[in-house]
TrEMBL record:
PANTHER family: UPF0473 PROTEIN CBO2561/CLC_2432, UPF0473 PROTEIN CBO2561_CLC_2432
Species this protein is from: Metasolibacillus meyeri
InterPro entries: UPF0473 (IPR009711)
UniProt signal peptide: none
Family: Belongs to the UPF0473 family.
Protein name as catalogued: UPF0473 protein P9B03_15195
């Protein structure tokens, strides 16, 4: 998933780069939660915005009412509650239509210095209907920072053996 950025002017009139954390719609308006890139321990801020068909943000406006701030705070608290427990076991992918897909990481393993994982699309408490495999690069905190293709028949054969052995253990 490609990160999204935008630029704003700070209080000193300097242009700052902002990283989109989350966008959402509420009460017929769109909002963006963001952090200022490069700031250590950057806090999450919010603005009203416009979202185009590709999910890109533009036309920013400040939040105006206490009720609006409370609603945004509630969304932020929900996100923290949902996603802060163990995010090394989840990831978000973007499909061809630009839609985010929430995935559960089922198993990670390393072979000859290369990292692999099995994952499934999170289907809200249901058993996964399909399991996917990929090589990956881990970020600083163990999160999946980039998925890589499985390149050779030998890699696929090894992955199939690992999956078969996991299936045997599960039985």
């Amino acid at each position: 998933m490609e990160e999204q950025f935008f630029k704003l002017l700070n209080e000193a009139g300097e242009e700052v780069l902002c990283r989109v954390v989350f966008t959402f719609d509420a009460e017929e308006r769109s909002y963006v939660l963001y952090t200022i890139e490069g700031e250590e321990n950057a806090e999450i801020s919010a603005l009203r915005c416009e979202l185009d068909d590709n999910g890109e943000v533009s036309d920013f406006a400040p939040l105006e009412t206490e009720a609006e701030w409370e609603m945004v705070q509630e969304v932020l608290n929900t996100l923290v509650d949902e996603f802060s427990d163990d995010q090394t076991n989840y990831m978000t992918l973007t499909n061809e239509d630009g839609e985010d897909i929430y995935c559960h990481i089922l198993h990670r393993f390393n072979v000859e210095g290369k990292s692999y994982l099995f994952y499934a699309i999170d289907e809200e408490g249901e058993e996964p209907s399909e399991v996917f495999a990929s090589a990956y690069i881990a970020g600083e905190n163990g999160e999946v920072s980039e998925l890589l293709p499985i390149e050779t028949d030998a890699e696929w054969a090894m992955i199939e053996k690992v999956l078969a052995s996991l299936a045997e253990v599960a039985e």
